[in-house]
Amino acid sequence: MEVTGKIKVVNPEQQVSASFRKRELVVTTEEQYPQHILIEFTQDKCDLLNNYNIGEAVKVSINLRGREWVNPQGETRYFNSIQGWRIEKMAAEAPAAAPMPAAPAFAPATNLNEDEPDDLPF
């Protein structure tokens, strides 16, 4: 799956434990009702965000993750997360090209002879 939009936030890397690190990115979609999507990059994928800045248009490849958790009272809860695994800059939109000039109009044929055989195959 992919999310496209402009970068709103690039958080610094967080060292969650001795063996786990993550970095969060917020992408604002460009649609009628823009959405602010929080995407997590983990472990070696954190470094993918080093060359990106706020305001850049990007396309982020994501995976949806879900997990189950049972609290000490025995209640089951479910959580979702969005994990990024690739990010790329969107090509800047080229300015609108000038319309192609219209082809010159041909004058209608005036030397038609209805008596000549039509040898066209169609």
Give short descriptive properties of this protein.
single chain, 122 residues, mainly beta, OB fold (Dihydrolipoamide Acetyltransferase, E2P), 6-stranded antiparallel beta sheet, 6 strands, 0% helix
Structure description:
Residues 102-122 are annotated as: Disordered. Pfam families: DUF3127. This is DUF3127 domain-containing protein. InterPro entries: DUF3127, NA-bd_OB-fold. Residues 113-122 have a biased composition (Acidic residues). The chain has 122 residues and is mainly beta. It has one domain (2-89): Beta Barrel (OB fold (Dihydrolipoamide Acetyltransferase, E2P)). The protein has no helices and 6 strands. Strands 1, 2, 3, 4, 5 and 6 form a 6-stranded antiparallel sheet that branches. It is elongated and about 100 Å long. The mean pLDDT is 88.
Topology diagram in text:
Elements: E1 2-10, E2 14-17, E3 20-28, E4 36-42, E5 57-70, E6 76-89
Antiparallel strand pairs: 1-3, 1-5, 2-3, 3-4, 5-6
Brief overview, please?
The chain is mainly beta. It has strands at 2-10, 14-17, 20-28, 36-42, 57-70, 76-89.
